[in-house]
From TrEMBL:
InterPro entries referenced in this protein's UniProt entry, alphabetically: Ribonucl_H (IPR013520), RNaseH-like_sf (IPR012337), RNaseH_sf (IPR036397), Rv2179c-like (IPR033390)
Domain Exonuclease: 10-196
Organism (species): Streptomyces cinerochromogenes
Protein name, entry field: 3'-5' exoribonuclease domain-containing protein
Length: 205
């Protein structure tokens, strides 16, 4: 029986800025994405992270917000309430963009860490479009990827402890597109990094 052909994975680095810890009571205020690369049977090929990007700022969906969370991004919530794009429009545009850039491949979100950004983005996709181009599990966490390759406990991982050659030279600005591009570079380097090898154990006796 012939082997089933597996589609390549198209990795999309995603960063969101929000005004609270969870979607629903709180709002996603901006969404940035950059194509990081593609992986097929021949390996991983990095993309220019500035070549295919997406960025939008959204209208808040509730009156609630956490001032400390809002301060991280520096976004003006009052301005977004008046001028931000409708979430239903943004998420439909984003889903169409993902389908376009991933033609012939399966799109996968990658983030650092992915858990926060995925929670908001998946919730918004389902709430405002009814479906997700990533399915319910098309998500890869860079912290987990690094922890596995570095042979470290996950909670011991921080960018400040990573080898310098893995890190992007771009600043982490808390602008969603800037950070998506920065993280795309980190992801590409992590995918190429061989990781930490464990020396062989000495012979017994």
């Amino acid at each position: 029986m012939p082997a089933r052909r597996v589609k390549p994975s198209l990795y999309v680095s995603v960063d969101i800025e929000a005004d609270g810890p969870i979607p629903g009571p709180y709002s996603m205020l901006s969404l940035g994405a950059a194509v990081a690369g593609v992986q097929d049977g021949a390996g991983f090929t990095a993309a220019d992270p500035e070549e295919r990007t997406f960025y939008r700022e959204l209208r808040p969906i509730s009156e609630e917000f956490v001032p400390e969370a809002l301060a991280v991004s520096g976004l003006d919530r009052a301005r977004l309430t008046a001028e931000g794009a409708e979430p239903s429009v943004v998420l439909a545009e984003f889903a169409a963009w993902v389908r376009e850039v991933s033609a012939g491949a399966q799109p996968v979100i990658c983030g650092y860490p992915a858990s926060y950004d995925w929670t908001f983005l998946y919730w918004y996709l389902i709430r405002f479009t009814g479906s997700s181009p990533f399915g319910h599990s098309g998500c890869l966490d860079m912290k987990t990827l690094y922890a596995t390759k570095a042979r470290l406990p996950l909670r011991a991982v921080a960018k400040g402890t990573m080898p310098r050659e893995l890190l992007s030279r771009r600043r982490h600005t808390h602008h969603a597109l800037d950070d998506a591009i920065e993280q795309a570079e980190l992801f590409a380097r992590l995918m190429r990094w061989p990781g930490v090898t464990v020396p062989p154990s000495p012979p017994a006796g």
